[in-house]
UniProtKB/TrEMBL annotation:
<feature type="compositionally biased region" description="Basic and acidic residues">
    <location>
        <begin position="14"/>
        <end position="27"/>
    </location>
</feature>
<feature type="coiled-coil region">
    <location>
        <begin position="129"/>
        <end position="156"/>
    </location>
</feature>
<keyword id="KW-0175">Coiled coil</keyword>
<feature type="region of interest" description="Disordered">
    <location>
        <begin position="1"/>
        <end position="27"/>
    </location>
</feature>
<protein>
    <submittedName>
        <fullName>Uncharacterized protein</fullName>
    </submittedName>
</protein>
<feature type="compositionally biased region" description="Polar residues">
    <location>
        <begin position="1"/>
        <end position="13"/>
    </location>
</feature>
Length: 180
């Protein structure tokens, strides 16, 4: 009987330790989840800023193209050396803007990829968090069942001891001594 109580008691301690580990794991996952949310928000802001820069540069690019076409038309009509210098400067500016746009497009692509990876990782962490919560519920139920079993065993031991005591007293009254 005592060995059953000891086994139930040691199982009870294992459950508490597992529950503590589960709580610690839950806390770590929540921290990681918060970090991922923050990182995702930051990347979204960076992506929006890059898209805004890209839009502005695209407008500048189109404006420069229009200016280039106008300048080329003026050069053909005037054939002026000053106009050729201006066209050269516009071409340099246009080339510079094209390079900047290329860099921004590459940056946008990279940020979009990072954002997708972060969102995927966040979904995986959320799924893992739900699994851990389910395991924790199972552990609580298991722990509750063990506590109930322990209470039943304690009650049975008390009843058994009471019956043994009454039995001894009965035999002592009857004059018979039985060693139990």
């Amino acid at each position: 009987m005592d060995s059953l109580i000891n086994q139930a008691h040691s199982s009870l301690h294992l459950t508490e330790r597992e529950r503590n580990e589960s709580e610690k794991s839950k806390s770590e996952i929540l921290t990681l989840l918060d970090e991922q949310h923050s990182k995702c928000a930051q990347l979204s802001l960076q992506l929006q800023e890059s898209e805004l820069k890209y839009s502005k540069l695209l407008i500048d690019f189109k404006t420069l193209e229009i200016q280039k076409e106008e300048s080329e038309t003026a050069l053909k009509l005037k054939a002026d050396m000053g106009a050729q210098n201006e066209l050269s400067k516009l071409r340099e500016d246009l080339q510079c803007h094209l390079q900047t746009i290329g860099l921004l497009v590459a940056e946008k692509t990279e940020l979009s990829s990072i954002l997708s990876e972060t969102q995927s990782a966040l979904k995986n962490e959320s799924s893992h968090h739900i699994d851990l919560q389910n395991k924790m519920k199972e552990m609580k139920s298991y722990y509750s069942n063990l506590e109930h079993e322990l209470e039943v065993l304690k009650s049975e031991k008390i009843n058994f001891n009471s019956i043994q005591k009454n039995r001894k007293m009965y035999y002592l009254k009857c004059g018979k001594i039985i060693i139990i």
